[in-house]
Structure formats: structure tokens, C-alpha cells
Amino acid sequence: MAKSKSSATSATRKKHAAKKAPDEPSTSSNPPSVPPKGKTKKERKDAKSAPRKKVYIPPSKPAPARPDPLDTLNLVSLIPPELAITLRALGKKSLVTRMRGVEDLKSSWLAQTELMRTVLPVWMHHLPSLLTHPSRRLRVLAGDVQRALVAMPEVREDMGEYEEDEHILGAWCMAAHDGNVGAREAWKAYAKPTERLAEYLMRAIEDPLGVYAAIHVAGEEDEEETEEDRKARLRVGALGGVVWCVAHVPMSITEALWECLTSEGQPGVRKATWALVGVLLDKDKDVEDAPVLDAAWQEFDVGVQSVMWGPVLRYLKRWPGEEGHVDDFLSFLSHGLNTQGYAAVVVVLSTLQLSQDETLRLFTSLWAPIYNRTLPGREHKALLECVFECLNLLSKRHAHSVPDQVETTFALLKSGQLKVDAGTLGRIVPPTEQVRNAVLDARPVDIPALVKVLDLNLKENVMHRAVSQSEDGLIVGMLSTFGRDTVTPELAERVVSSSYDVIKAYLRVVDNDEQQRVWDALQLDTKRLVDLAEDVPLSLGGAKLDNVNFDGEDAETVKRILRTSPGLFLSDEGYSTILSTITDLDLIDAIPTERLTPRLVSLLFFVGQPRSGAVLPVDEVTDTLKAMLLEGEEVFDLAEEAGIDPWSLVPRPPTGEHAIAFLTSVCIQRRREACDPERMWAVRALLTEEGERARSIVSYVLREVNSPEARKRALDYVSSSGLEWLLNDVIQHGTPEELSRLLGLVFSELEPEEADGWVGLARKIGDRGDEVIKALCNAEAEGKAMERWRAEWTGAILNGGGVRAMRKLAASIPRAESDIVFVQPVQRAVNLVRAMEQYVSEEDEDPVIATLLLPLLPILQNVPGSHWEFIYDVIASSVDLKMVLAMDELAMSNRTLREEWSGRRKEVIRDVLEYVVEGGDDPDALKILAEEEVDWNVLPKLCHLFSSEAYPLLNKAARAWTEHWVVEVAIGSEEARIPQELLDVLDVDEDLFAWMILFDLFEGTSLKLKSLYVEQVRDLAAVFMANVVDTTFPLDGWAVDEFYVSLYEPDPLSEQILRAHLFHRALLTVPSLLVVDKAIAAYTAKWFSKGLISAELTAIRSDTALQDEQFKVRIVRDDTEVVAAYLVDEHSLELRLRLPADWPLARLAVTGPKRVGVDEERWRRWVLGVQHGSGRLVERLGVFKRNVEGHFEGQVECAICYSIISVMDGTLPARPCRTCKNRFHGGCLYKWFSTSHSSSCPLCRSDMV
Fold first, then answer.
1. What is the pTM of this model?
2. Is the C or the N end of the chain the one with fewer CB within 10 Å?
3. Cβ(357)–Cβ(330) under 8 Å?
4. Is 237 within 8 Å of 175 (Cβ atoms)?
5. Could you give the C-alpha distances from 88 to 122, 137, 339, 485, in angstroms and in order?
């Protein structure tokens, strides 16, 4: 059988060839020759660069497994069993097992010093493989344990036994210099440099994989790490160790070390090597033969260059550069450098002797990154400094052959390719004649700054050129930079005909006389003149606009003239002419008050724009203001400014919307005056107004004037003003609503004795007295007279007094929460109910019967009898909502009544529901129905009701609707829909509770029903975003994940919180439909996403059905990542989901999935289902779980490897035997065919090919 090709690296093969050399002659006919000592440097260099013959070196065999001291020293009998298990885990091949072992050792056993001394051989046995393992976490944990052990003096002393084990010290040293903090601190406390350690580190640099194989057992499980990455990691640690060793022990540097300077794809190795070169140079080691410059001029990694420059410059100081390196160096420059590199260029040049051609190429290479646009703008300054430093250095050597770079510099500056400010340029560029010429040829925008910074005497030359060539930008720049010093006679002569910007800049720098001359000569249009007057502070006079017809000019321009500096444009005569002829009211408004004439004041008053200081007849102004008031104009402030009493403007009586509004404003502005007895007419006018402002002023005035004396005078009719007049007028002429409102406010402080007088008044004034009685009862101001009133009218009803007697008695019903008993004793109340029965048959049923029965229900609740049948009939026929509520409340605590009422209540509830469906919106009806179950088909009929009171009823109807359609859809119906009546309301009205009901419909839906709902509301997403979402409202301190409708108040704050809650529900329900822009995304991320993510993760954690023995869900990375893993045959199929900051608007990010046993197309569909699903995350993971379980359900093991998932390619058994029908992995079959030299089935032996 042919010998397989070796996988050893070139360094490994060289090492084995060197070992073989003393015993066996070399198989190569021309072995590489070593340059003799007598050769020149160039000859030695050529010898090094000569091609070498390849020599086959067999790969090194893996080291045999060393016995575990746990067994050889019989330590198991000396330590606890738990510790033995932990130490066994350190030698396992599984990474997870080893990591758990180190973690357990660190957390549970390190505190026991004596025990650690006992097991130290076991730990030191495993230490090399742990500190060089590909898993960084395992290396860090091992370093932490080693640091803790070294901190124990007894343990540190015991470690001396292992100083001869090169693997232990070498691995420890490499880990200490590879970023392992624990290993580094332990190494500092213990380090003992030896020549053997130095040799080991050099061997690790030459053959890192050989060292790794000597430490690790074959087949050991590790993280994914390429061979190149492993070599780089070990070399970096070894190089760091060599740097440390150089300072302590003598050691020889091999050629393999210098190969690290040019390691491709390993910048870390190159950085570490350059650091070693620097240390060697500091220790005066001989590194002349090292390819330092060859490597340096081929290094284009910025990170490596930052470490490289120090060693390179020290190397050049001892061994100046050779001619052969010039081309490499110039090529190196053409790629561009950073600031540190450009600072070092002149030092490198000082060691080279350049020819004239090479000098030209030098500057070409320096400018190349600018031309190629590869140099960042932040490095342009360093490049320019480098160019002129090189120019200065080379000009001293051969001045005539050095090209001048000034022209190139300014050409690049002018083209915009070179980005250097004028200050930097002036500090770098010398002020030569050539620079003067270059400045004149620069960009006009740069010339003023260059002239100032370079301190060139060019101001006159530049200004002459700018004026002669009409370069307005340059003129403005020179005037702004140098001021009056750059004004020339030529510019003064031409400035009037120049552009606006030149005129503005010129006027800013010249004196007043010159400003006046130019101003008088200007021929600009009016608007530009006004702009100039606003832009430049001018203290001038003029008459440029005396003859202008202002009514024909642009109104805004004229306003600006009149408001700012009219003296610049108008003489006194011209101003007077304007004041006498102008008619445009907007222009009049712009005239200062002190210049107004009576004619203008009159005009201003007429349009509601008066000014202080106006002198007009009071009657004329008053009439004007009254006319304006009736037209709806705001005249209160105008009246005060004109010195007119606003009360005099109010019509008597004040009729009409505008007059009432003005009266309200006057009363609010002058509350104390509104309390004047002579102004009670104003309160009388506002009594019937429903506005909040009118109600508040009426309450305020009555509270101020209300007193027992005033009320007594009202009873005696002895005054024609004040509260008594108001009471008498309303009692005699007012409507019942006016009387009720007035008495409700006046009777709030009534004593029982005084109340008796008002009962007497009620008797005198007939039926209007009923309102007085009602007001007294509502104020709970009752005395003996009220008791007599009730007794009198109760007796009248019992004696056939009719409906009038019932109404009189109904007027005296006390407040529901009052302790006053309406009718007593109980038998009298029973008789009263029976007496009312006759009036039902005689005059049909009057509403007053239900009114009277309501306060009798608590009195009669424990009295059985036929009167209850009459009460139930009244409730059923009148559907009195208050009685229904009262019966519900009584039935809760009265069993007998509850049994009777429950049978009659169903019919009443049907009538109440019918009332609501037909358009009724009484809050009592909604309160009654809120506790009732409703049918699903009622929801469309209720879509005219959207309020906080109706929400409980609508919510129940919405839930019933969804429950109905969930069942229908499950059995195949495709007619599921959202009520069209609801969609119509959402499309037209901005009703927030309608949106609440819409989102309620999504609660408890199935996935199929939800998808049908989503399609129906897709067109409403834009309406929702426009009418509901307000991204300007901050939610500090507000939790919007829940909203308690029962606490809702119709105010702006509650509305904003409800809007935020609706947006929260939209994000939970239909995030994919929302129209997203930057503002919406930022608003969501700031106020909603954290709470939504927390809710999603809580739902995942609490869902016990989601996880089982095979399917696990973990939450990692500070609650921002969810990992769903399905275990098959010790193989884990994983899906990692990262929740974005603006979840759920942004989709889930899938990171690092592990796909085993699933084809790519199927896996892609599963992932897209999780990313773009319409449900919550826990629902999407449930779908993913069902997909995975369904895929693997029924899969059988491969009969070759006895696994469902192939360990080679992660596939399922998909190759069937046509005879026995068993399935096998393709890879397993291939291996079986190859090793068995047949193509038969492993089980039935039938041919499978």
C-alpha cells in the first residue's frame, strides 16, 4: 500500500532532519549550505535567500498517554469520593466535562490547603493540557486555579518537584504570556528561568503542533480551531516567554524565529516577534543577520506596524540600511502609513544614500496614497510634515537635485485631495517666493487664510486680482479676514455695482461717512435694502422710499421697514405722508404706537388692534367694541387698554353665544366685581350655561354672597338686589333646571330650622315648590316641616289623592345615601304600595310610580306579600334601570328576595339589552349588563357604544365572538371575520375604546383565526399609527402593559396613557403590520421593548409544556438571547435567537445555529417561521418544537453506527436496503464498503449496489 503523504509542517520536518543528521547521511544531494564566517554581508544575504531543497521529515507521533497520578499514587483512597470524581473529569476528552471539573475544583475544594497538597500531582499532571487547550474559557479557569494554588505557601513549595518537567513549566509560561491573567500572576509569583525552559519555548516556536501533540491526548474534544490559529496561539505565548527568558538566561536564537516575522495571516505572531526583536536589541544581542528590514518593508498591518517601528529604528541605528532595501522601502511608502510611521520615515532616510532618481521616486511614493485616495484624512497632516521634513533633509545633501514639493502640495490642496487646514499648512510650509506664487494660484476660499497664516505681504496683490476679475467670494474672504486694511480705491469705486455679499462685507468694515456714501448710491430693490439694514448695523439717515406706494409693496417687507429702522428709508416728511395715506391694516399694525394718528387708532380699534396712548371719544370706542363683541371678537383686553369698563359692554340681558362668552370672561377676570349685589343679573344669565367656566363662576359668586341673612330676606321679599333678588327671580320666573341648580348651591349650608321656612315657601308657590323640596332633600336640610310634608302627602295617596299627591311625595324622596327613612312605619309603606296599584289601572302607569317605589324597596325587603308582584310588574313594564340596580343589590343579601327576583330578572335583562342594542347608552343599563353573559352575535349590534362605561359589556361580547369563531375555524369554516361595524368605526372615528375591543378580539385566538383577523385589519395599520400613536408623550413612571378601564377619566393624561397601552397591545398582537420609521423604532426601544422582552422571556420560562427531556430552551447573554436545543443521539440541534433592542418591530436575529439531521431548505423554512411568525415568541418556539419532533418522529438508528444523527456529516439514515428495508447513513455505508471490500448490506448481506 502506498505510503500516505505526511501532514507535518516544514518546521517539524526540519527538526527531525536535524536529529537524524549525526547518525545518517543526508539523503539530499545538495543540502543547504551555511554561509561561512568570512563572507560579506551581501553574500550572506544571497545565501539566505537561495532556494532550499525540500527534505521529507516524517511527522511526530503523538505522545503516549501518561498514567494519571490518581491511579499510580493510589490517591483515590486518600481523598473524598466527590473530589476523585472532579479530578477524573480533568482527564476526560469531553470539553464540557473538563470545564465542569475545573469549575468544581475552583469553587468547592481550593479552600482546603492540605487536600490540595495531596492532589497536587494530579493537578500538575493535567495542567499543560488545560493551559494550552483551544477553549479560552478552560484556559482561564485553569489559570485561576493555578493562581490560587501558588498563593498557598505550602503548595507553592511542593511545586518545586516539577521544575524538571518541561511541559508543565513551558505550558505555564506560554499561558502566562498569552493574555491569561491568572496564569500570568501565578507565573510572576513562582517563575524560575532555566535554559531548558528557553529551549522548550524555542521548540514551541519552531514546531508548535509537535509541542501540542506531546501534551494532548489524541481524540481529545476541543472547540473549532484551525491549525493555523492553533499554531499562532502557541507561538504568541512562546514568543512572550522567550522575551521574558532573554533577560534571565543565555539562549541562542534559531533561524525559525525570524520566519515568524513574515508569518502570513498571523499578525499576533508578527507583533510578538517584533517585541522580541526589540528586547534583543535592547540587550545588545547580535541580530544583524535577521531579516528585519525585509520583513519590515513587507508589513502592511497597522497594528503590527505600531510595534514594529521601535525595533526597526534601533536596528537601523546599529546597522544602517543597504542599497538593496531602497526599492522595498519606497514600495512600502506607497501603501500609506499612520502618524507614527510618517514620523519615522525621515529617520530611515537618514541611513540611506538616495540617487536623484530614487529621490524623485521617494516623493512619488509619499504622495501615492493621496492620489489613490487610500489615506484617511486624519493622516494627511502627518504626511505633509513628513514630505517637508524629507525635503529639508535631502536639500542639505544635494540641493539642486531635490524636487520642490510646494507646487504639488498646493495643487493637491486646490483639488481637495489634500485635507489640511491653513494653520497647519502655514506651520509646515516655508514662506518662499514659490509659496507666494502657489498661494495666488490656490482655491479662492483658502487664499485669505493662507495669506494670514503664512504672513505673506500679498494683501494688495490678492485684492487687485479679486476686484479686476470680479471674484466676489475672494473679496468677501479678504474683507472678513483683514478688515479695513484690504479696502482699495478700486474696490471703493466698484462696490456699489457689486454683489449683495460684497456690499454687506464692505459696509461692515468702513466708517460711517463711507457707509452713508455707499447707502445713498445703492440701487437695490426694497427687499434687498431691508435685508441689508437687518444684516449690517447702520446708524444712517435716508429718504430712499419717500415716494414709494407702500400699499403696492410686499406687505412683509414694509412691515420690516416700519418695525426696525424706518429712519434709514424715510424722512420725517415721507413718514408723515405714509401715516396720512396708508390704509392697509396689517401695515398700520406695524407702526410704533407713538407715531399713530387718531385716524389710524380708529382703524385699529375697529379691527380689534388698539394701542395704548390712543385718544378717541369714549362713546365711539365703546360702540365699536360692542359691535365687535356681538361679532365674536375678543374685546376684553381692548376695553381695558382703552380705559373702558368691560361691564359696560355686556348687553342687558346678555343673549347670544358671543355675549355669554364675553360675560363669562368678564366674570372670571373680575371675580370680586361679579359678587357685587348689583351684578347678580350676570349670575342669573349664567345659571343655564353648561360650560365649565360658567359653572365655576356661578359657584364662586354664590359661595361668596350666600348667607343666612340674605336667604331670610329672600323669604320675606324685602330686597331688590343681591342674592335675595336672584332667588326670588328664579323662583318666580326661572325654569326647573335653573331653580334646581341655584337652590342646590344655596342650600348647601342650610340649618333644619331655616329649612322649615323654605318648606313653607314651597307650599305657597304651588307646583314650583316641588323643586324647592327636592333641593332641600338633596342638601339633607330637613326639619319637622319636611316630616309633615311627607306624612301629609302619604295620607293623601292612601285617601285617593291621585298622581298629583304622588308627585308631591316624590319630590321629598331623600338622597339614596341619606340615613333618613322615607316612609315609616313599615306597614304604612306596604299600604302605600297597595294604594298605588289602583292608579296603574286607572291612568295607565305613570313614571312617578317607579320613582316612589325605588326608596320603598329597602324598607320592604324583609316584608313578604302580594305587593312584591306589583313591584315586579312595574319593573318589567317600565324597565326602570335604577330599580333593577336596587333589586340586584338587595338580592345579594336577601335569600328569599334573590330566589323571587332571579326568575323575573331574565326578562328584564332581555329588555335592557334590547334597549342598549337599539341605541340606548344609559350608564345604569351598561352597569347592569356588565355582569351578564351575552351571545357572540350581539357584538355587531353594540358597535355604536364605545366608552369606558360600555367597555366591560363590549369586552364580554368580543370574547364570546372569538370563542365562537375559534371553534368554527377548527372544524373548517373560512367565514371567520371581524364585525364590519367595528371596522367601519375604526376607519372613520378616532375612538380609542374601539381599538381596545379590536385587540380584545385577538385574545385567545388560534393561529389560523389570528391570520384571518390580521388580513382584515391590514389596511387599518396606517390609520392606527396616525390616529392613536403619539411618540412625543414620555412614559416615565407609567406602566402601560395593563390598563384599568374602570379607573379611566376623560382627561388628556388618561387619554395619553390609553394610547400608549394600545400601542403596547399592537406590539404584542400585530407588530408586523405597524408602519415603522426611525421615530417609532426609537420610541419602542426606549419605552416598550424591555418590558415586552421581559414578558416574552417570562412566558417561555413558565411554559412547562414547551420543555421536556429532549427539547430545552435556555435564556443567555443577559436575557437577550434564547437558545432552543433538541437532543438527538447526543447531538444537539440548536437555534439561537437574539432579541433586538427595538423588539418586536425588528425581527429576531439568528446567530450560530447548529443544524443536524435537517436539510437546508427545511431548516430555512423553520427559521423563517420563527423569525416572521405572527404570534408571541413562546408560540413560535412551540411551532418550531412541533416541526422538529415531527421531523424526527419514527426515525430509526443507523444499523452500522447505532445513531440517528451521523457523527461525520450530521445527516439522517437515508440509504435504505431494498431487501430488509433498514436505513443507513451514506458515510457509514461508504466506510463499510471500503473496509469490508464488498457492497452487501451489513444486516441481510444482500447486494446494495
1. 0.47
2. N
3. no
4. yes
5. 9, 19, 54, 91
